[in-house]
Design a protein that fits this description.
α4 runs parallel beside α6. A six-stranded parallel β-sheet has the order 7-6-8-9-10-11, sandwiched between helices. It has a six-stranded parallel β-sheet with strand order 14-13-12-15-16-17, with helices on both faces. It has a five-stranded parallel β-sheet with strand order 3-2-1-4-5, with helices on both faces. The longest helix has 23 residues. It has 34 helices and 17 strands. The radius of gyration is 29 Å and the shape is globular. The protein has 714 residues and is an alpha/beta fold.
Length: 714
């Protein structure tokens, strides 16, 4: 394969880039792209890229001072400053066969890189690059011979290197002294921690040194020490920006190793918010948004709320949100901007209601709703997936750009959103946005006019920063799938409860439950426990396995079938740690023949025919459709009192009948033993539970709530 490295000094045009990459692929080349763009500016989906590398994002590792300095000067100079310090780009450039400047600002950088890799063709533009690739394919022998004579850098580079040798001598010693090999030893780690926290070291020098030592400690296996050294340096630094950077990096490194230090994380968030407020007060929307984004992504890191069995946000919502509520920059994000005209009410008298249903990527819970109103004579419906729209997709992915716009910057971005959404808003009477994430934030970034905006929040969103970017003053109705989610959301966003806020509704998920009514394969199915969907730590399958162990102490006929994909081990270190323990449990029980990993299936009703007990072992759920589907199939429902909501006004105990609820594996086993001891008892319990579920949560019942919400039908 021929390796091609593209360098861009600005954001490439998506259509041109895709067409070019297709041509490179056809020519038998592998392509990597690096450039002066933010990660959200280039959507890798559909692009045949081996790697996509943002120079500004990588440049942040060198500190804010470097980033600020690198952004000065001409476009050629800016690009080279980032390229020169970027180890990944230099490494790829040394191996590339063709170096390509995609635009004028990248020309100088490609020329400099080509001086170090004289084997490569250095060109400006796609057409010359494709010609160079084609020539290499046609004359491999010529290039193999040429490579022999061009193994060394150019004389210009050699001369420049000699002149720097003396100056770099001390630096070479420093690089070796702070290498991972040195820092993995107790003596080396202790010595450098003392140096980093020594008095009278300039802030800039201390910060650079701390990052270097921390990085080498991580590489050397001292991951806890990597955070400690950053925190120690932060304690000695007076500069607010450098302090915030060190504290935030320390917290991120802690989380990356599967550990959370609440006090350290809180210090980092507080420092970042203080810096964001300072920059916001100075009318620096760009940098205020950058720092605020760092604070939010740290506070709402998935490892804290999704990959553990508890969440600090749920445990103490007011305490967790207090630093943000005290921040002026954060307040500006959530400031109500209102609308010039009130939303139109009712159904138009002279035509059907125009309903736009929209989401970003996840339409899993929309099909029954779409089907209902596609056949409704009083509704004209359209569906818009922002991820599938070439114009809206890059706008919806720009979380930091949204923040900058809300803080008074990025006017051009705001104009693009207005131009892209206005045709949809002008057509629709009502927009139904599923998931309170980026689609909801984008639609409320502009004045909706008289169009009614309805947003549905499931569960996931509550533990992300997205709802805080949604302008609630431009939403007319918010739909929750459970009372406990409404309570949590209004705790996090108190303005939802204020007079003049959006109307709040609780409507269960749309489920076609009748298709789950199939005969069980055997009366012995009552001894088979089912767990459907275990792709998240929050499902806590280890709790369910504890239930199985309790049952098997009484009767070895009890077994468990686990339906669905396993955990995503790449999500975080916390998820990997849980999955390691889960795998040990499964290995033990599989050896006994007590567990069957059914895997993912499109025929869940068929899988349920052999399951007689359906479990909800989760620490949190929005509704848990799989539980209700299993109950309708004739399985005995056993629901853990979801710990995230246990003891609160609403939760599993108020959503489901009280006798379904248990708090411990022992109680779960007792309920199962009581109702599965005989076939008659089991069938009695499951028939009643199935009848209740159908009459309460089947789409034929729930759809009336949507008719009332969208059409005003009683």
């Amino acid at each position: 394969m021929i390796d091609v490295l593209l360098i861009a000094g600005s954001v490439p045009q998506p259509a041109v880039l895709k067409a070019s990459l297709d041509k490179f692929r056809e020519a038998g080349a592998t392509v990597r792209l690096a450039g002066l763009f933010e990660p959200a500016d280039v959507d890798p989906e559909g692009l045949d890229l081996l790697a996509l590398h943002s120079l500004p994002e990588a440049g942040e590792a060198h500190g804010e001072k470097f980033v600020k300095g690198a952004q000065k000067g001409s476009a050629l100079s800016r690009t080279w400053k980032f390229v020169q310090r970027d180890r990944w780009v230099r490494s790829q450039a040394r191996k590339a066969d063709v170096l390509v400047a995609l635009d004028q600002p990248a020309v100088y950088s490609v020329w400099r890189l080509a001086q170090r890799n004289r084997r490569a063709d250095a060109v400006f533009g796609i057409a010359p690059a494709l010609k160079a690739v084609a020539d290499r394919r046609e004359r491999p022998g010529h290039y193999a011979l040429r490579n022999v004579y061009r193994t060394l850098p150019s004389p210009v580079v050699a001369a420049r290197s000699v002149s720097r040798t003396a100056r770099r001598g001390a630096n070479g010693v420093y690089q070796k002294a702070t290498s991972p090999r040195v820092l993995r030893t107790a003596v080396g780690a202790k010595a450098w921690r003392a140096v980093v926290s020594a008095p009278r070291v300039p802030d800039g020098t201390r910060t650079v040194l701390a990052h270097r030592v921390s990085h080498s400690m991580s590489k050397g296996g001292r991951r806890a020490g990597a955070s400690i050294v950053l925190n120690s340096a932060a304690g000695r630094v007076a500069d607010a920006a450098l302090k915030a950077d060190l504290l935030a990096e320390a917290a991120r490194k802690d989380i990356a190793r599967g550990h959370d230090d609440p006090k350290g994380r809180a210090r980092a968030v507080k420092a970042l918010l203080a810096l964001a407020d300072q920059r916001y007060a100075n009318h620096d929307a760009k940098h205020a948004a950058h720092v605020l984004s760092s604070a939010l992504t740290l506070a709402f890191h998935r490892a804290l709320h999704f990959d553990d069995l508890s969440s600090p946000l749920s445990a103490d919502t007011d305490g967790y949100m207090a630093p943000f509520r005290a921040s002026k920059a954060f307040a500006a994000l959530s400031a109500p901007r209102g609308r010039e005209l009130p939303a139109a009410t009712g159904v138009p008298a002279d035509r059907p209601l125009r309903l736009l249903v929209t989401t970003y990527s996840n339409a899993n819970f929309l099909q029954p709703i779409m089907d209902r109103y596609a056949d409704h004579p009083g509704v004209e419906i359209r569906f818009l997936d922002l991820k599938e729209d070439d114009e809206l997709r890059p706008l919806a992915k720009g979380g930091q750009r949204m923040m900058e716009y809300l803080l008074g910057g990025q006017r051009g971005f705001g104009n693009k959103v207005e131009d892209a959404l206005r045709p949809h808003l002008d057509w629709a009477d009502t927009v139904f946005v599923d998931w309170a994430t980026n689609a909801a934030a984008l639609f409320t970034l502009v004045d909706p006019g008289t169009t009614r905006i309805v947003v549905r929040l499931h569960s996931y969103e509550a533990w992300t920063f997205w709802p805080h970017l949604v302008d609630r003053s431009r939403i007319d109705d918010v739909v929750f799938v459970g009372d406990h989610l409404r309570d949590l959301a209004t705790d996090i966003l108190p303005d939802l409860r204020e007079p003049g806020g959006p109307r709040l509704h609780v409507i269960a998920n749309a489920m076609d439950l009748e298709r789950y009514q199939r005969p069980k394969t055997s009366p012995d199915a009552r001894f088979t426990l089912g767990l459907v969907g275990v792709s998240a730590v929050a499902k806590d399958p280890r709790w369910a396995l504890d239930v199985l162990r309790e049952l098997r102490r009484h009767d070895s006929r009890y077994r468990m079938v686990i339906v669905g994909d396993g955990l995503d081990r790449k999500a975080s270190a916390a998820a990997r740690r849980y999955d390691n323990l889960l795998r040990e449990d499964l290995e033990e029980l599989e050896a006994e023949g007590a567990v069957e990993l059914y895997g993912r299936t499109e025929d869940v009703p068929g899988a349920l025919t052999g399951i007689g007990v359906i479990l909800s072992s989760s620490v949190r759920e929005s509704f848990h459709c799989a539980l209700v589907e299993g109950t309708v199939s004739g399985a005995l429902p056993v629901v853990r009192d979801w710990p995230f909501f246990a003891g609160k006004e609403n939760g599993a105990r108020t959503l489901y009948p009280a006798d379904w609820i248990v708090t411990t594996p022992t109680q779960a086993a007792e309920r199962i033993l009581e109702w599965t001891g005989s076939e008659d008892r089991w069938r009695e319990a499951t028939a009643g539970a199935a009848k209740l579920s159908l009459s309460t949560w089947d789409w034929s019942v729930v759809s009336a709530g949507f008719d009332k919400l969208l059409l005003g039908d009683e």
